[in-house]
Amino acid sequence: MDRRALTEVLDRAWVRSDARGVVFAGADSGVVDGHADPIAFERSLPLDQARDAEVLLAYAMNGEPYDPAPRGALDSLYTSSVLAIRPQTGEIHCYYQYTPNDVYDVDGTDEHLLTDLEIDGQVRKVMIQVNKNGFVYVLERTDCSLIAAHPYVYVNWATHIDLDTGRPVLTDPYRDFLAGEEVYIWPSRGTNAVPVARDPDTGLLYINGWHVPRIQQLTDREVRIGGNSTGVNNRFPDVESGGVLGHFMAFDPLTGEKAWEVELTDYPSAAGMLATGGGLVFTGLLTGEFIALDAATGETLWEFQTGSSVNATAITYTHEGQQYVTVASGLGGFLANRYAAQTMPTGGSLWTFALMDAAP
User: Which of 3, 92, 116, 354 has a Cα-to-Cα distance from 71 of 20 to 30 A?
Assistant: First the structure.
Protein backbone atom coordinates (compact mmCIF):
# COMPACT_ATOMS: atom_id res chain seq x y z
CA MET A 1 0.00 0.00 0.00
CA ASP A 2 1.33 3.41 -0.96
CA ARG A 3 1.13 5.71 2.08
CA ARG A 4 0.88 8.86 -0.01
CA ALA A 5 -1.99 7.40 -2.06
CA LEU A 6 -3.88 6.50 1.11
CA THR A 7 -3.24 9.92 2.59
CA GLU A 8 -4.57 11.63 -0.54
CA VAL A 9 -7.72 9.49 -0.54
CA LEU A 10 -8.45 9.97 3.15
CA ASP A 11 -7.68 13.67 2.84
CA ARG A 12 -10.58 13.89 0.38
CA ALA A 13 -12.78 12.15 2.93
CA TRP A 14 -11.91 14.64 5.66
CA VAL A 15 -14.49 17.42 5.94
CA ARG A 16 -13.06 20.25 7.97
CA SER A 17 -14.73 22.47 10.52
CA ASP A 18 -16.86 24.39 8.01
CA ALA A 19 -18.81 21.23 7.14
CA ARG A 20 -21.80 19.82 8.93
CA GLY A 21 -22.53 16.50 10.55
CA VAL A 22 -26.02 15.39 9.50
CA VAL A 23 -28.12 13.95 12.32
CA PHE A 24 -30.73 11.36 11.47
CA ALA A 25 -33.92 11.22 13.53
CA GLY A 26 -33.67 8.15 15.70
CA ALA A 27 -30.43 6.93 14.14
CA ASP A 28 -26.73 7.29 14.82
CA SER A 29 -26.21 10.92 15.75
CA GLY A 30 -22.70 10.96 14.33
CA VAL A 31 -21.38 12.24 17.67
CA VAL A 32 -17.96 10.84 18.55
CA ASP A 33 -15.90 11.99 21.52
CA GLY A 34 -18.41 14.79 22.04
CA HIS A 35 -18.07 16.16 18.51
CA ALA A 36 -20.08 15.63 15.34
CA ASP A 37 -18.50 13.05 13.10
CA PRO A 38 -16.93 15.22 10.40
CA ILE A 39 -17.82 12.88 7.56
CA ALA A 40 -21.18 11.60 8.78
CA PHE A 41 -23.60 11.69 5.89
CA GLU A 42 -27.20 10.57 6.12
CA ARG A 43 -26.90 6.98 7.23
CA SER A 44 -28.96 3.93 6.58
CA LEU A 45 -31.12 3.09 9.56
CA PRO A 46 -30.94 -0.29 11.31
CA LEU A 47 -32.44 -3.13 9.30
CA ASP A 48 -36.05 -3.97 10.19
CA GLN A 49 -36.65 -0.76 12.11
CA ALA A 50 -36.54 3.00 11.92
CA ARG A 51 -37.70 5.74 14.26
CA ASP A 52 -38.81 9.27 13.52
CA ALA A 53 -38.83 11.43 16.63
CA GLU A 54 -40.28 14.40 14.74
CA VAL A 55 -43.52 12.74 13.63
CA LEU A 56 -43.53 10.22 16.53
CA LEU A 57 -43.65 7.11 14.39
CA ALA A 58 -41.67 3.89 14.32
CA TYR A 59 -41.29 2.07 11.01
CA ALA A 60 -41.22 -1.72 10.94
CA MET A 61 -40.37 -3.81 7.88
CA ASN A 62 -41.20 -7.47 7.51
CA GLY A 63 -40.76 -10.66 5.52
CA GLU A 64 -42.46 -12.43 2.67
CA PRO A 65 -44.97 -15.32 2.33
CA TYR A 66 -43.20 -16.81 -0.77
CA ASP A 67 -45.34 -19.93 -1.43
CA PRO A 68 -48.73 -18.76 -2.81
CA ALA A 69 -50.56 -22.08 -2.29
CA PRO A 70 -51.71 -21.73 1.35
CA ARG A 71 -53.09 -18.22 0.80
CA GLY A 72 -54.80 -18.54 -2.55
CA ALA A 73 -52.37 -16.13 -4.24
CA LEU A 74 -53.80 -13.21 -2.23
CA ASP A 75 -51.85 -10.08 -1.24
CA SER A 76 -51.06 -11.27 2.31
CA LEU A 77 -51.57 -7.86 3.87
CA TYR A 78 -48.62 -6.35 5.77
CA THR A 79 -46.08 -8.85 4.39
CA SER A 80 -43.26 -7.40 2.26
CA SER A 81 -44.35 -4.04 3.62
CA VAL A 82 -43.36 -1.10 5.79
CA LEU A 83 -45.67 -0.23 8.68
CA ALA A 84 -45.68 3.10 10.49
CA ILE A 85 -46.58 2.34 14.10
CA ARG A 86 -47.35 4.72 16.94
CA PRO A 87 -44.94 3.49 19.64
CA GLN A 88 -47.09 4.77 22.50
CA THR A 89 -50.10 2.63 21.54
CA GLY A 90 -48.93 0.08 18.96
CA GLU A 91 -51.51 1.46 16.51
CA ILE A 92 -50.73 1.05 12.81
CA HIS A 93 -50.80 4.62 11.52
CA CYS A 94 -50.25 3.69 7.86
CA TYR A 95 -48.52 1.12 5.69
CA TYR A 96 -47.22 0.52 2.20
CA GLN A 97 -46.91 -2.93 0.64
CA TYR A 98 -43.94 -3.09 -1.69
CA THR A 99 -44.63 -6.51 -3.18
CA PRO A 100 -48.23 -7.74 -2.84
CA ASN A 101 -48.42 -11.54 -3.00
CA ASP A 102 -44.64 -11.81 -2.83
CA VAL A 103 -43.71 -15.06 -4.57
CA TYR A 104 -40.10 -13.98 -5.21
CA ASP A 105 -38.64 -14.13 -1.67
CA VAL A 106 -37.79 -10.41 -1.76
CA ASP A 107 -39.57 -9.27 1.46
CA GLY A 108 -39.30 -5.64 2.64
CA THR A 109 -36.61 -5.71 5.29
CA ASP A 110 -33.93 -3.49 3.77
CA GLU A 111 -33.24 -0.31 5.69
CA HIS A 112 -35.10 2.97 5.17
CA LEU A 113 -33.45 6.37 4.85
CA LEU A 114 -35.45 9.15 6.54
CA THR A 115 -34.89 12.62 5.15
CA ASP A 116 -36.61 15.76 3.86
CA LEU A 117 -36.74 16.42 0.10
CA GLU A 118 -37.94 19.38 -1.90
CA ILE A 119 -40.41 18.03 -4.46
CA ASP A 120 -42.28 20.38 -6.81
CA GLY A 121 -41.34 23.33 -4.62
CA GLN A 122 -42.60 21.70 -1.42
CA VAL A 123 -40.50 20.15 1.34
CA ARG A 124 -41.70 16.59 1.95
CA LYS A 125 -40.86 14.27 4.82
CA VAL A 126 -39.88 11.08 3.04
CA MET A 127 -38.43 7.65 3.55
CA ILE A 128 -36.42 5.93 0.82
CA GLN A 129 -35.95 2.19 0.41
CA VAL A 130 -33.81 0.29 -2.07
CA ASN A 131 -35.97 -2.83 -2.16
CA LYS A 132 -34.80 -6.35 -2.96
CA ASN A 133 -37.52 -6.53 -5.64
CA GLY A 134 -35.45 -4.26 -7.90
CA PHE A 135 -37.20 -0.91 -7.32
CA VAL A 136 -36.19 2.16 -5.32
CA TYR A 137 -39.17 3.70 -3.51
CA VAL A 138 -39.72 7.20 -2.17
CA LEU A 139 -42.62 7.37 0.30
CA GLU A 140 -44.22 10.21 2.25
CA ARG A 141 -43.37 9.05 5.74
CA THR A 142 -46.26 10.81 7.48
CA ASP A 143 -48.93 8.84 5.58
CA CYS A 144 -46.99 6.12 3.67
CA SER A 145 -48.18 7.40 0.28
CA LEU A 146 -46.04 6.64 -2.78
CA ILE A 147 -44.12 9.54 -4.35
CA ALA A 148 -41.77 7.76 -6.76
CA ALA A 149 -40.62 4.26 -7.69
CA HIS A 150 -37.95 3.35 -10.25
CA PRO A 151 -36.03 0.17 -11.13
CA TYR A 152 -32.32 0.32 -10.25
CA VAL A 153 -31.46 -3.12 -11.70
CA TYR A 154 -32.90 -5.22 -14.50
CA VAL A 155 -36.47 -6.26 -13.56
CA ASN A 156 -38.69 -8.68 -15.51
CA TRP A 157 -41.48 -9.58 -13.05
CA ALA A 158 -43.10 -6.11 -13.36
CA THR A 159 -42.99 -3.37 -15.98
CA HIS A 160 -43.26 -0.53 -13.46
CA ILE A 161 -44.96 0.61 -10.26
CA ASP A 162 -48.30 2.33 -10.86
CA LEU A 163 -48.11 5.64 -8.97
CA ASP A 164 -51.92 5.87 -8.70
CA THR A 165 -52.49 2.43 -7.17
CA GLY A 166 -49.02 1.92 -5.68
CA ARG A 167 -48.99 -1.60 -7.08
CA PRO A 168 -46.54 -3.29 -9.47
CA VAL A 169 -47.79 -3.91 -13.01
CA LEU A 170 -47.10 -7.64 -13.41
CA THR A 171 -45.71 -9.48 -16.44
CA ASP A 172 -45.75 -13.01 -17.88
CA PRO A 173 -43.14 -14.58 -15.53
CA TYR A 174 -45.49 -14.00 -12.59
CA ARG A 175 -48.43 -15.63 -14.33
CA ASP A 176 -46.30 -18.46 -15.73
CA PHE A 177 -44.93 -19.22 -12.27
CA LEU A 178 -48.42 -19.47 -10.77
CA ALA A 179 -49.32 -21.80 -13.65
CA GLY A 180 -46.55 -24.18 -12.55
CA GLU A 181 -43.87 -23.34 -15.13
CA GLU A 182 -40.18 -22.90 -14.32
CA VAL A 183 -39.36 -19.21 -14.72
CA TYR A 184 -36.41 -16.84 -14.50
CA ILE A 185 -37.17 -14.02 -12.06
CA TRP A 186 -35.04 -10.87 -12.38
CA PRO A 187 -33.68 -9.91 -9.97
CA SER A 188 -33.29 -12.79 -7.54
CA ARG A 189 -32.65 -9.88 -5.22
CA GLY A 190 -31.66 -6.44 -6.42
CA THR A 191 -29.66 -6.14 -3.21
CA ASN A 192 -29.68 -8.13 0.00
CA ALA A 193 -29.36 -6.49 3.40
CA VAL A 194 -26.54 -4.37 1.97
CA PRO A 195 -26.72 -0.83 3.39
CA VAL A 196 -26.86 2.04 0.92
CA ALA A 197 -25.54 5.57 1.37
CA ARG A 198 -26.89 8.98 0.36
CA ASP A 199 -25.31 12.35 -0.34
CA PRO A 200 -27.72 15.03 0.97
CA ASP A 201 -26.16 17.70 -1.25
CA THR A 202 -26.68 15.88 -4.56
CA GLY A 203 -29.55 13.63 -3.47
CA LEU A 204 -27.79 10.62 -5.00
CA LEU A 205 -27.97 7.15 -3.51
CA TYR A 206 -24.93 4.89 -3.67
CA ILE A 207 -26.10 1.31 -4.22
CA ASN A 208 -24.52 -2.12 -4.48
CA GLY A 209 -26.86 -3.96 -6.86
CA TRP A 210 -26.97 -7.61 -8.00
CA HIS A 211 -27.48 -8.86 -11.55
CA VAL A 212 -28.46 -12.46 -10.82
CA PRO A 213 -31.81 -14.14 -11.62
CA ARG A 214 -33.65 -16.72 -9.56
CA ILE A 215 -34.89 -19.81 -11.42
CA GLN A 216 -37.97 -21.08 -9.59
CA GLN A 217 -40.94 -23.41 -9.90
CA LEU A 218 -43.81 -24.46 -7.66
CA THR A 219 -43.49 -27.91 -6.10
CA ASP A 220 -45.60 -30.13 -3.89
CA ARG A 221 -45.27 -29.09 -0.28
CA GLU A 222 -43.98 -31.90 1.92
CA VAL A 223 -44.88 -31.29 5.55
CA ARG A 224 -42.71 -33.19 8.04
CA ILE A 225 -42.44 -32.82 11.80
CA GLY A 226 -39.30 -30.83 12.42
CA GLY A 227 -38.88 -30.13 8.72
CA ASN A 228 -39.77 -27.23 6.49
CA SER A 229 -40.71 -26.50 2.91
CA THR A 230 -41.20 -23.29 1.00
CA GLY A 231 -43.34 -24.99 -1.62
CA VAL A 232 -40.95 -23.55 -4.21
CA ASN A 233 -37.89 -25.08 -5.86
CA ASN A 234 -35.31 -22.45 -6.69
CA ARG A 235 -31.80 -22.35 -8.05
CA PHE A 236 -29.34 -19.93 -9.59
CA PRO A 237 -27.70 -20.16 -13.01
CA ASP A 238 -24.11 -21.23 -13.43
CA VAL A 239 -21.59 -18.40 -13.54
CA GLU A 240 -19.84 -17.83 -16.84
CA SER A 241 -16.37 -16.32 -16.90
CA GLY A 242 -16.52 -12.58 -17.45
CA GLY A 243 -20.24 -12.44 -16.73
CA VAL A 244 -21.68 -9.27 -15.16
CA LEU A 245 -23.09 -10.20 -11.74
CA GLY A 246 -23.65 -6.79 -10.21
CA HIS A 247 -23.02 -3.05 -10.23
CA PHE A 248 -21.96 -0.23 -7.98
CA MET A 249 -24.03 2.84 -8.90
CA ALA A 250 -25.02 6.41 -8.08
CA PHE A 251 -28.81 6.67 -8.40
CA ASP A 252 -31.34 9.52 -8.24
CA PRO A 253 -34.40 8.13 -6.39
CA LEU A 254 -36.77 10.81 -7.71
CA THR A 255 -35.93 10.54 -11.43
CA GLY A 256 -34.57 7.00 -11.67
CA GLU A 257 -31.47 8.26 -13.49
CA LYS A 258 -28.00 6.84 -12.84
CA ALA A 259 -25.12 9.30 -12.56
CA TRP A 260 -22.71 6.39 -13.07
CA GLU A 261 -22.58 2.62 -12.94
CA VAL A 262 -19.61 0.25 -12.48
CA GLU A 263 -19.90 -3.37 -13.64
CA LEU A 264 -18.88 -6.20 -11.32
CA THR A 265 -17.74 -9.23 -13.34
CA ASP A 266 -17.25 -12.83 -12.16
CA TYR A 267 -18.24 -11.92 -8.59
CA PRO A 268 -21.09 -9.81 -7.21
CA SER A 269 -20.46 -7.83 -4.03
CA ALA A 270 -22.01 -8.10 -0.58
CA ALA A 271 -20.39 -4.99 0.92
CA GLY A 272 -22.31 -1.93 2.05
CA MET A 273 -21.66 1.63 0.91
CA LEU A 274 -20.17 4.44 3.00
CA ALA A 275 -20.27 7.94 1.47
CA THR A 276 -18.18 10.80 2.81
CA GLY A 277 -18.31 14.57 2.64
CA GLY A 278 -15.08 14.64 0.67
CA GLY A 279 -16.61 12.92 -2.33
CA LEU A 280 -15.65 9.30 -1.65
CA VAL A 281 -17.63 6.06 -1.48
CA PHE A 282 -16.00 3.22 0.46
CA THR A 283 -17.07 -0.35 -0.29
CA GLY A 284 -15.54 -3.78 -0.92
CA LEU A 285 -15.26 -6.84 -3.15
CA LEU A 286 -15.55 -10.59 -2.63
CA THR A 287 -11.99 -10.87 -3.94
CA GLY A 288 -10.75 -9.02 -0.86
CA GLU A 289 -10.25 -5.45 -1.99
CA PHE A 290 -11.39 -2.58 0.24
CA ILE A 291 -11.86 0.31 -2.20
CA ALA A 292 -12.56 4.02 -2.35
CA LEU A 293 -14.61 5.21 -5.33
CA ASP A 294 -14.93 8.75 -6.65
CA ALA A 295 -18.51 9.69 -5.70
CA ALA A 296 -18.83 11.81 -8.85
CA THR A 297 -17.64 9.23 -11.40
CA GLY A 298 -17.38 5.78 -9.79
CA GLU A 299 -13.67 5.60 -10.60
CA THR A 300 -11.59 3.52 -8.18
CA LEU A 301 -9.18 5.94 -6.51
CA TRP A 302 -7.58 3.59 -3.99
CA GLU A 303 -7.74 -0.06 -2.95
CA PHE A 304 -6.25 -2.32 -0.30
CA GLN A 305 -6.15 -6.13 -0.33
CA THR A 306 -7.51 -7.42 3.01
CA GLY A 307 -6.80 -11.10 2.38
CA SER A 308 -10.41 -12.31 2.38
CA SER A 309 -13.83 -11.17 1.15
CA VAL A 310 -15.12 -7.77 2.23
CA ASN A 311 -18.82 -8.27 3.01
CA ALA A 312 -19.23 -5.63 5.70
CA THR A 313 -20.04 -1.93 5.61
CA ALA A 314 -17.15 0.33 6.57
CA ILE A 315 -17.54 2.80 9.42
CA THR A 316 -15.76 6.08 10.03
CA TYR A 317 -15.19 7.90 13.28
CA THR A 318 -12.83 10.23 15.11
CA HIS A 319 -10.90 9.58 18.28
CA GLU A 320 -8.82 12.23 20.01
CA GLY A 321 -8.85 14.33 16.86
CA GLN A 322 -7.75 11.51 14.56
CA GLN A 323 -10.03 10.20 11.82
CA TYR A 324 -10.30 6.48 11.12
CA VAL A 325 -12.03 4.19 8.62
CA THR A 326 -12.61 0.58 9.73
CA VAL A 327 -13.90 -2.46 7.83
CA ALA A 328 -14.23 -6.17 8.57
CA SER A 329 -12.92 -8.87 6.20
CA GLY A 330 -13.83 -12.56 6.01
CA LEU A 331 -16.06 -15.09 4.30
CA GLY A 332 -19.59 -15.12 5.64
CA GLY A 333 -23.16 -15.14 4.42
CA PHE A 334 -24.79 -16.68 1.38
CA LEU A 335 -23.18 -14.58 -1.33
CA ALA A 336 -19.55 -14.86 -0.23
CA ASN A 337 -19.76 -18.58 0.41
CA ARG A 338 -21.50 -19.29 -2.90
CA TYR A 339 -19.19 -17.28 -5.12
CA ALA A 340 -15.87 -16.98 -3.29
CA ALA A 341 -15.46 -19.95 -0.92
CA GLN A 342 -13.38 -21.89 -3.45
CA THR A 343 -11.03 -19.02 -4.22
CA MET A 344 -10.73 -16.97 -1.01
CA PRO A 345 -9.49 -17.95 2.46
CA THR A 346 -11.92 -17.82 5.37
CA GLY A 347 -10.20 -14.81 6.87
CA GLY A 348 -11.65 -13.01 9.86
CA SER A 349 -9.83 -9.72 10.36
CA LEU A 350 -10.55 -6.10 11.13
CA TRP A 351 -8.71 -3.35 9.26
CA THR A 352 -8.43 0.25 10.39
CA PHE A 353 -6.95 3.11 8.36
CA ALA A 354 -6.03 6.53 9.67
CA LEU A 355 -5.54 9.89 8.01
CA MET A 356 -1.85 10.48 8.55
CA ASP A 357 0.13 13.68 8.22
CA ALA A 358 1.76 13.94 4.81
CA ALA A 359 5.41 12.94 4.74
CA PRO A 360 7.76 15.95 4.67
Answer: 92
